[in-house]
Design brief:
The chain has helices at 57-64, 76-84, 109-121, 126-144, 147-159, 173-178, 181-191, 207-218, 268-279, 297-303, 336-352, 357-373, 378-391, 394-398, 400-405, 409-419, and strands at residues 2-3, 8-10, 13-19, 25-30, 36-43, 87-92, 97-104, 197-203, 241-247, 253-260, 308-315, 322-330, 425-432. By secondary structure, the chain is an alpha+beta fold. The strands form 2 sheets. Strands 1, 2, 3, 4, 5, 6, 7 and 8 form an 8-stranded mixed sheet that branches. A 5-stranded mixed sheet has the order 9-13-10-12-11, with helices on both faces. Helix 9 (268-279) packs across helix 12 (357-373), helix 9 (268-279) packs across helix 16 (409-419) and helix 10 (297-303) packs antiparallel against helix 11. The relative contact order is 0.16.
C-alpha cells in the first residue's frame, strides 16, 4: 500500500490519501465527534461513459449490484444493516456511480465486507436481470408523467450534439428494452474494478487500522482491465436551439440552457457565485439544500411581479463542460415570451452592470453556508471527498472555499458576458394542449 505524503487537514480533521497495489485509491479521515463511521465506494462510470444502444446501462448495473452475491443473497445485506443499526444506498450520475454505508463505528467492517464482495462477485442472474428491466422501465415511465422532466430531457438532448451528456442517466427507452444480461455483465466487469474505484472512509476509527482492513478486504481483488478512454468533445454551439413540447398538463413550463465550463475551469467559481446571485445559494452535491430567501434577482423579477410561481437557476460541477440552466413555472395567463424576456433582462443586467459589493458578499457568504451544511455529518463529508475526486481532484476540494472567496464582481460580469449569448442558448417551452 502506498501512502500520500501530503496528507492534509480538512474540515477539522486529517485527510489521508493512499492507493492499494491493485490501483484502488483510498481517502481516509478520522472524525471522533460521534461513534459513527461512513464508507463509500465511488466508481468512475456513469452516463458519460455510455454510447447509443447502451444508454442507462450504468444505472441498471447499479441496481443489479443490489441483487446479491453467493455470500450475500438478495435481501441478506438489508437485514444485516438493519440489525447493525445502519443505513445504506447507491446512486448513479453522469460522471460516477457510488454505494455507501453509515454504521455505528464498531460495525463499519460490515460495509467493507459487502462492498468488496459485490465488487468481485455480483451474480447477474438472468431472471433477476429481466425483472429489473421491468422495474427500470417503470421508473422511466413514471418520470415521463412529468412534463417538466420531459422538457428538461428534450432540452438536454438538443443542447448536446455529440457528448454523452445528451443522454438521460436512466437511458433511452429503446435501449432499456433491447440490452441483455451479457452487456450488463461486461459493463460491470469493465468498470466496477479496483483500478476504477475510490474508497472513502470518514468517522470514528484509527486511520492506520482502517487502511489495513480495507487492504485485507479489497487488496486481493484483481485490478481490472484498462479503462476505455473518453475523448468526446462537444462542438461549439453556433446557433440558437428551441424545443416546443405540448401535452395534457395544464401548467406551463419554461427552460433556458447555456453550455458552461467543467469543475476545474477557472470560470467555475464565478459562475457558482452568479448562480447564487440569480436564484440563491445551493448545496453542492446530493445532500445540500438551498437558500429560500426571496431577495435573489430571479425571484424579484418573476415571482414578485407575478410572471411565474417559481423560478430558479442551476449549475453544478462536472468532469466535462455541462450546462447552466434556468427553469420557471409560469403563472396563469402569462406567456412564455414574457418569462423568457424577463429572464434575459436579468442576464443582460449582470452583463452590463457590475454586481454591487454587498450583493456579492451576501452570495458568497450564503454559498459558504450551504457548503458547510452539506458537509456536516460523516456521511456527507465522505460523499464530498469522493465526489470531488470523481469530478476534479482533492486539490479542487481543498481550495474550494479559497477560490469561492476570491471571486470578484468583475469576474461575475465577465463570465455572464462570456457564457450567455442568444446564439448559444437552448430554449424550451412546454405548452398545454
Amino acid at each position: 500500500m502506498e501512502a500520500d505524503s501530503t496528507a492534509r487537514a480538512q474540515n477539522g480533521g486529517r485527510v489521508d490519501k493512499r492507493s492499494l497495489d491493485n490501483g484502488m485509491q483510498l481517502i481516509l479521515k478520522e472524525s471522533h465527534l460521534a461513534p459513527v463511521a461512513s464508507f463509500w465506494i465511488f466508481y468512475r462510470v456513469g452516463s458519460r461513459n455510455e454510447t447509443p444502444g447502451t444508454t442507462g446501462i450504468s444505472h441498471w448495473v447499479e441496481h443489479m449490484l443490489f441483487k446479491g452475491t453467493e455470500r450475500y443473497p438478495q435481501g441478506a445485506f438489508d437485514k444485516a444493516v438493519a440489525r447493525a443499526g445502519g443505513a445504506f444506498n447507491g446512486m448513479t450520475w453522469q460522471d460516477w456511480t457510488t454505494y455507501f454505508e453509515t454504521f455505528p463505528a464498531e460495525r463499519i467492517e460490515l460495509a467493507l465486507d459487502v462492498e468488496s464482495d459485490r465488487m468481485a462477485n455480483a451474480i447477474f442472474d438472468v431472471d433477476e436481470t429481466e425483472s429489473e428491466r421491468t422495474v427500470i422501465i417503470s421508473e422511466r415511465e413514471g418520470s415521463e408523467n412529468s412534463y417538466r422532466w420531459l422538457l428538461n430531457t428534450e432540452m438536454q438532448a438538443a443542447a448536446f450534439q455529440t457528448h454523452p451528456y445528451r443522454h438521460p442517466v436512466i437511458g433511452w427507452k429503446h435501449d432499456l428494452l433491447t440490452m441483455g444480461r451479457d452487456e450488463l455483465y461486461e459493463h460491470y466487469r469493465t468498470y466496477y474494478t479496483p483500478k476504477n474505484a475510490v474508497a472513502v472512509a470518514v468517522g470514528d476509527f484509527d486511520g492506520e487500522r482502517m487502511a489495513a482492513r480495507i487492504d485485507q478486504f479489497f487488496g486481493g481483488i484483481a485490478s481490472g482491465p484498462i479503462m476505455p478512454e473518453m475523448h468526446m468533445q462537444e462542438p461549439e454551439q453556433r446557433a440558437e436551439r428551441r424545443i416546443v413540447l405540448r401535452g395534457a398538463d395544464q401548467t406551463s413550463y419554461f427552460g433556458l440552457a447555456f453550455h458552461a465550463p467543467a469543475a476545474q475551469h477557472a470560470d467555475f467559481f464565478p459562475l457558482t457565485v452568479l448562480d447564487s446571485i440569480l436564484s440563491g445559494a445551493k448545496g453542492m452535491g446530493l445532500f445540500g439544500g438551498s437558500s429560500s430567501n426571496r431577495s435573489n434577482r430571479l425571484y424579484r423579477a418573476l415571482v414578485d411581479k407575478e410572471l411565474a410561481v417559481g423560478v430558479t437557476s442551476s449549475f453544478m460541477p462536472t468532469i466535462d463542460p455541462y450546462l447552466f440552466g434556468f427553469h420557471a413555472t409560469l403563472a396563469q395567463g402569462i406567456t412564455h415570451q414574457q418569462v423568457e424576456d424577463a429572464i434575459w433582462a436579468e442576464i443582460e443586467r449582470v452583463q452590463e452592470e457590475p454586481v454591487a459589493a454587498e450583493e456579492l458578499e451576501k452570495a458568497i457568504k450564503q454559498t459558504k453556508a450551504q457548503f458547510a451544511y452539506s458537509s456536516e455529518s460523516v456521511t456527507n463529508q465522505a460523499y464530498w471527498l469522493g465526489f470531488s475526486e470523481m469530478i476534479a481532484d482533492s486539490d479542487w476540494f481543498d481550495a474550494w472555499l479559497i477560490n469561492l472567496e476570491a471571486v470578484t464582481a468583475e469576474e461575475v460580469q465577465r463570465v455572464a458576458q462570456t457564457w450567455f449569448s442568444r446564439d448559444k442558448q437552448t430554449a424550451g417551452w412546454y405548452l398545454p394542449e
